[in-house]
Write a structure and sequence with these properties.
By secondary structure, the protein is mainly alpha-helical. It is 61% helix and 5% strand. The protein starts with a helix and ends in a 25-residue tail after the last strand.
């Protein structure tokens, strides 16, 4: 319920960002939402015990280490994506809500998945930009700790839980093999040996924590429902709320939501609550969904042509061994049957869809399915299997795949720590990406910010106060 409550508060903070409500109104609605959730939780049919304080504490320590190594809080190196991400957090912290960027004659609305930034920016408005950066680190660590805690309830012993954490953090495709086949140096970003891309979990945490946390939340809540530990209305209510963190991860959660509805209908378990609460959550999330859709026609979506030989090699190296191991060793197990068919179909279809730049859809919308697959592998390694060939196949793929997250961690340790951001978003990205800003003329009237302040940034020539080398992403030496 804490997770759902946080997602609801993000929706309310978006209304405040758009100027629909006052500070007092946002506070009153947030308190009301939390109180309502407490009352709802008292009447929901929960099953099993939740995670204990020791499990949550251990999960928080691991999560904090992960996000610190990923550059949050600026204690270690941060990837080039944080040049944009830090500028967005800076602007949300320093500029009065609501605001529009004045760029020449254009007036631009920040239109992006800003759920991850809103609460930390509020902290920053009270205590400064550095406090906002620390608040972002703590918020994301707490959220991942909750997910670790909830995921721990899927395993029966402490040893199995820690093994699952290790498997989850090490999980990746066998990118090192792909690099060798593509004659690429291992000093490159390991996942760019071919397009499309399925990202390792550590890569997701370091580069795109908002997408990662949204996709992992969807996967954990779905599995808790499937294990009978969570009513369907709670898990289904989360799906539309997650879009403010990552619309692509929310899209990737939709097949699992469809499987939930189909299985609930087949068992005749559809109740008025299972329909009513997700409908209410969708209504609450509707302004956020409309906000994210503003100007989306410029982003575009289209089929992606992938050469057949590239596609086959990609699937074999990224997910093939894991899917084979689960299919042959666990078809009738927890992660077999319809569930296995569902996430297999998702992972086989993802490479053929493009939304936005390059392979963003496959990278982000695959996150829930990859998380379910990783937990399935951890489950496979935790139980006796008649033919040990298949767990060994999964372990071998996992060992090779772990080279990718190891490389991400190595880079975080050897490159200089992330410097402070000195520029606005438009200073870092002149003109803005169409995935981040939309001309105010394209904003629907009902969504347009009330009494927005026009901000014309005066940015310095250098946008950060120290060196910020970019990782090598492509074989020609280009950086992201």
């Amino acid at each position: 319920m804490i997770l759902i409550g946080g997602l609801l508060i993000d929706q309310i903070l978006l209304w405040r960002f758009l100027g629909w409500i006052s500070d007092l109104g946002a506070l009153a609605l947030s308190l009301g939402a939390c109180g309502g959730l407490i009352r709802v939780a008292a009447h929901l049919p929960m099953s099993g015990r939740g995670p204990g304080l020791r499990v949550l504490g251990g999960g928080f320590a691991v999560a904090l280490a992960v996000f610190m190594l990923g550059g949050e809080g600026r204690f270690f190196y941060a990837t080039a994506d944080w040049q944009v991400r830090g500028a967005v957090l800076r602007d949300l912290t320093l500029y009065p809500w609501p605001y529009l960027y004045a760029d020449g004659d254009a007036r631009l609305l920040l239109r992006a998945p800003i759920g991850i930034y809103l609460a930390p920016a509020l902290v920053g408005k009270l205590a400064g930009l550095r406090a906002a950066e620390i608040a972002l680190l703590l918020q994301n660590s707490a959220m991942l700790a909750i997910l670790f805690g909830l995921g721990a309830t899927l395993f029966g012993s402490a040893r199995a839980r820690w093994r699952a954490v290790v498997v989850f953090l090490a999980f990746s495709g066998m990118d090192a093999v792909g690099q060798l086949l593509a004659a690429q140096p291992l000093t490159m970003n390991a996942e760019r040996w071919v397009m499309p891309v399925f990202s390792a979990h550590i890569t997701q945490a370091f580069w795109v924590p908002q997408h990662a946390l949204a996709g992992w939340s969807a996967a954990i809540l779905f599995l808790l429902w499937r294990e009978g530990k969570l009513p369907p209305e709670l898990w289904l209510s989360a799906v539309p709320l997650l879009a403010l963190w990552s619309p692509l991860a929310a899209m990737g959660a939709m097949p699992f939501a469809a499987l939930t509805i189909w299985e609930a209908a087949r068992r005749r378990e559809v109740t008025r609550h299972a329909i009513g609460w997700p409908a209410l959550a969708s209504l609450i999330a509707a302004p956020g969904l409309a906000y994210l859709a503003t100007g989306s026609a410029e982003v575009g979506s289209r089929p992606l042509a992938v050469p057949f030989n590239h596609y086959v090699l990609f699937e074999l190296l990224e997910v093939g061994p894991y899917l084979l191991a689960l299919a042959f060793a666990g078809w009738r197990g927890r992660f077999g049957g319809r569930l296995l068919v569902t996430f297999t179909a998702i992972l086989l279809a993802m490479p053929f869809v493009q939304i936005g730049q390059l392979g963003d859809f496959a990278m982000r919308a695959s996150i829930p399915a990859l998380a379910v697959l990783a937990i399935g592998v951890a489950d496979l390694l935790d139980r006796p299997v008649a033919d040990r060939l298949w767990p060994r196949l999964a372990m071998g793929a996992l060992a090779i795949g772990a080279i990718t997250p190891a490389f991400e961690i190595w880079r975080a340790l050897v490159l200089p720590r992330a410097p402070a951001i000195l520029c606005s978003y438009l200073g870092v990205v002149p003109g803005g990406y169409n995935t981040y800003v939309a001309a105010v003329e394209r904003v629907p009237v009902f969504l347009a910010p009330n009494r927005a302040t026009s901000i014309r940034p005066r940015d310095p020539a250098t946008c950060w106060d120290g060196p910020w080398p970019g990782p090598i992403l492509f074989a020609d030496g280009g950086n992201g």
